[in-house]
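2024-03-11 09:14:02 INFO queue: dequeued item Lysine transporter LysE, len=218
2024-03-11 09:14:02 INFO validating residues
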Amino acid sequence: MEHPFLIIGATHLIALMSPGPDAALIVNNSIRLSKEKALWAAFGISCGILVHTILALTGMSVLIQEVPWIKAVLQFCGGSFLLYLGISSLKSARQHHSFTTAPSEGQPAQPNISPNSMTIWFQGLATNVLNPKALVYFISIFSSVVTVSSSFTFKALMAFEMFGLSMLWFSFLALVLSSSSVQQKLGRMNAAILSLTGVLFIAVGCAILMTGLLTIIR
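2024-03-11 09:14:37 INFO prediction written
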């Protein structure tokens, strides 16, 4: 294939821009927390993409796909984690709504406990690494450009490209969504957006859990 880096890069960039758990996590953290935390989430997701890239380039992704119990464990862990994120997002939406409405007289304000940066980074990492669909995506995207004879340098540059594009896109998304101008325009829609991302996490999580159950049954 001619110009493999250009083709893979363009394909990956389109995939990054598609709605999914990764983008939902950036939206969630940008609205719920801060620009700094959203950037940590972007870094975590990009690290997860780097892990999947390395697994695909070394052939480990194919091995995981071929071993049913490993695949099932990944699906159950990934689905459960997305359910956790979804429930947390819905709780945040409820709290955010209560903060934007007039509190009852004498009602004490609820403390807003923000998770630390490493927790946010881990959420980003886990959201991507535990997504079984990512395994299939990375296997398919590299199947036509990476062969047994591909050099270490070629694979390393490919991994760097995937990580770099991911970091650039999700950082851009985090910076835009957490900017004061965008936050002001969103206004009272923040609670609705958090609810929407929560529903997305739960829907995808349930779908992955069902797939894991079917993997065991088969």
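2024-03-11 09:14:37 INFO annotate: Confidence is low (pLDDT under 50) at residues 102-111.
2024-03-11 09:14:38 INFO item closed
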